[in-house]
Specification:
The protein is an all-alpha fold. It has helices spanning 2-9, 15-21, 26-43, 57-68, 70-78, 88-95, 99-105, 109-130, 137-147, 159-162, 164-181, 199-202, 205-213, 219-229, 238-244, 252-258. Helix 2 (15-21) packs parallel to helix 4.
Length: 262
């Protein structure tokens, strides 16, 4: 829409000739124009209403200068990376131009190690603070079973000793805590307001997960198991869900809808 506006109104300004002389890829120009428009709109918004940005002759001329100068345009966008969320490829590209990222790249190897250690420490404290109110008995009991009262042995416990299922359960709890503290909800299938999803399957997804763990690993096998035992079909996406997220029965958002107390 903005590109059409430029093509009609910029012939009397310096923008049109500049565009003709530009060697930039048209796709890059279009993406940059639209992204710049969105950033301008977001910066002029207040409350929950956005004002329409009126582009006068001088502003249009300056915008044209940005469009034909790829370096200048990338630098402007790099300082408004958050405004490019609708354009992930462009966002990833221009974010490398951000002054903070460039400053990080100039750090020495030792300083980058210090940076990583500080980040690791901060993330550890964030997780610790989030999990203070969570029930961690299943982890504590497992650790106590393995080491008894020898606390020093905790430092050498392996993932295999702890048990992958318990660790996955713990990580799922962390993910849920992150979403709850940021007041965002993950897009689980059974929470979707749009699209096609089968309540008959997702209300029994915990049972399907158990069957998948017990050997019905392929979609074909799990689908047949669901038809015979649950009276529904297994969606193609459920295998990926089980592999990446785990047991639905351990997810608070699933328990809110389908748990015994729901």
């Amino acid at each position: 829409m903005l590109l059409g506006f430029l093509s009609i109104h910029s012939r009397k300004s310096s923008v049109y000739p500049a565009l003709l002389k530009s060697r930039m890829n048209l796709g890059t120009i279009v993406s940059a124009i639209v992204a710049t428009k969105h950033i301008l709109q977001r910066k002029t918004s207040y409350s929950k209403r956005q004002e329409t940005v009126t582009v006068n002759k001088n502003a249009l001329s300056e915008l044209g200068e940005l469009i034909v100068s790829k370096e200048k345009l990338m630098n402007v966008l790099a300082n408004n990376v958050d405004g490019l969320s609708d354009y992930p490829s462009l966002q990833a590209h221009v974010s490398k131009k951000h002054p903070n990222l460039q400053a990080y790249q100039k750090l020495s190897k030792e300083k980058k190690k210090e940076f990583y250690d500080a980040l690791d420490e901060r993330l550890g404290w964030m997780i610790y603070e989030m999990m203070l109110d969570e029930k961690m008995d299943f982890l504590i009991e497992r650790a106590a079973f393995l080491v008894g009262d020898d606390i020093s042995k905790l430092h050498s416990l392996s993932l295999k000793e702890f048990g992958p299922d318990l660790v996955v359960r713990y990580l799922t709890m962390i993910c849920s805590a992150v979403y709850s503290q940021t007041e965002e909800r993950p897009s689980y299938p059974w929470l979707a307001e749009k699209g096609r999803w089968d309540p008959a399957f997702w209300s029994n997804a915990d049972k399907a997960f158990i069957a998948w763990e017990q050997g019905y690993r392929s979609h074909y096998k799990l689908d047949n198991w669901c038809k015979e035992n649950l009276g529904c079909r297994a969606p193609q996406s459920c295998i990926k869900f089980f592999k990446t997220i785990g047991d639905p029965g351990q997810i608070p958002q699933w328990l809110e809808v389908y748990g015994e107390e729901a």
